Amino acid sequence: xxxxxxxxxxxxxxxxxxxxxxxxxxxxxxxxxxxxxxxxxxxxxxxxxxxxxxxxxxxxxxxxxxxxxxxxxxxxxxxxxxxxxxxxxxxxxxxxxxxxxxxxxxxxxxxxxxxxxxxxxxxxxxxxxxxxxxxxxxxxxxxxxxxxxxxxxxxxxxxxxxxxxxxxxxxxxxxxxxxxxxxxxxxxxxxxxxxxxxxxxxxxxxxxxxxxxxxxxxxxxxxxxxxxxxxxxxxxxxxxxxxxxxxxxxxxxxxxxxxxxxxxxxxxxxxxxxxxxxxxxxxxxxxxxxxxxxxxxxxxxxxxxxxxxxxxxxxxxxxxxxxxxxxxxxxxxxxxxxxxxxxxxxxxxxxxxxxxxxxxxxxxxxxxxxxxxxxxxx
Length: 378
Hints:
It contains seven helices and 13 strands. By secondary structure, it is of the alpha/beta class. A seven-stranded mixed sheet has the order 1-5-6-7-8-10-9, covered by helices on one side. It has a six-stranded mixed sheet with strand order 4-3-2-11-12-13, covered by helices on one side. The longest helix is centred in the N-terminal third of the chain and has 23 residues.
């Protein structure tokens, strides 16, 4: 290879590295006009091979024309209707057993988000690795996709279980005094697939190494929030996203939650203590999972809301006549006296149904600065 070719190759590699670094450094931000940050959660797409993949649990008259493409159409409609600032895919993004090519299935599953040019992130479920890529390979593929902010694992954690444990910061409005401070912290964790301990059956769980990383990250973010410049009374609110629900989700029924519980809570058979870890950290206000497609409730326990999104994908089990759905979360900033934007004043949520009107249901306030109080067990 000639000298000129070597120099061109080096320049190309530098540009690629710079582009990756820029993608990771560019912060998510609250909107300058509305003072809001809007997140669309998509759970359990179960994407496989596109048009040739049939739907599950729809009415017989829908079957001839129903496929993975219905899942894609739903995402596109939601993006147009909600105009989210960020999209989170909370696992079982593809259904590995039926996906003949994992990379091709992921490319199709995330295509609507990618073409919208909206930043997005993903975590793994228990089915993503059941096709032609290992669990590690699936996450590596996701990290390399366009417009994603997903990370393989935190660079500072030398030993950590799983793939896709990372955090993202949502900074204040560009040009404001809080432009360089994270006002909303997003945590993403790999809740595993299945137990690897012979004496413990069932699904995986969030391991001690992941919890230690979470604790260190939360502490670091809280310290930054309360330190100069622009020191705040902390902590900034946090949201956590992963696939498999915690055992504490079983605390809820129709009497103490918003939404429906139509099936059992398919959590791990052991309690790894992550809920207690989050309570101890003090910043997480809500957790969002998938996995149990027929549950879409939100309930508060010890100051943290535990929420399902409800099943999204059409090649996933559901219930005929019960619309596929997604969850929207909106964090809103406080408007200050001189018209500038302050810190987060509230976090609200609702769900959107895949019906003729994309009906919004079950609106509720997850957290409000004005209603801060000592958490109580419900």
